[in-house]
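Researcher: Structure for this, please.
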Amino acid sequence: MTHAAVAERSVNRKELEYKVKAMYEHVAQDPFGEFHFELGRALAQRLGYASEDLDRIPREAVDSFAGVGYHFDLAAIGTGDAVIDLGSGSGMDSFVAALKVGAGGVVQGVDMTDAQREKAERLRRRDGFEQVTYCKAYIEELPFAGETFAVAVSNGVINLSADKARVFREAARILKPGGRLAISDIVSEKALPEGVTCNATLWAACIGGALQVDRYIETIRAAGLRLITLRANPQYRFLSPSAQKACAAYGVKSVSILAVRD
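Model: Predicted structure, token format:
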């Protein structure tokens, strides 16, 4: 979460951070528990992840996968690339990225939730993913020098931030010229009402922070990134009645996006 919430979305920042951490600590520790969203391998495969990739990474990371789309085809990660995963969770996307960069590449995971990061680190060490490292940080305040990474990926995390403009500015800053931002996230067709956008529980549930898609695109462009691709992910679905109601009323949906830093 950010240290300065956007004024028009006056969700309580401290409450939001607490609820997000609690939600995803639960995801890390009990991936077979009851959630309003799907988790695990069946979801990943339906979204587009290749079975052969999932077979080569830690099963426990796949079990805790809570992504909302697939974007590795857009990312076009090459052997030897330096990749950053914004909101790396229990590590599934960072491990998939490691398969693509090979032994000569680098994958940096960033997450604010201790339980998620610690699980990913344990799996990394156990299974020998030496090109992967994890650090505790906010995606709005990345502790890396500018022009460090060839690719930035993120899956279902940016919608949780109360300062998306800052997230995209940071992504643009740490990408090399020509670097690619490939993400999947939750957006809305219509502006959400204040009763939703001020509700920290709905933010943590990936609903309250769903920015209207036109504004989401504008925010990416304002950060200095050029939009290349935006596609819907109809394979993704929420499970709870309240989330499904928001989807029907406001067009809340998953999209995958590719943007490039010129």
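Researcher: Any notable elements?
Model: Residues 37 and 237 are 7 Å apart (CA to CA). The radius of gyration is 17 Å.
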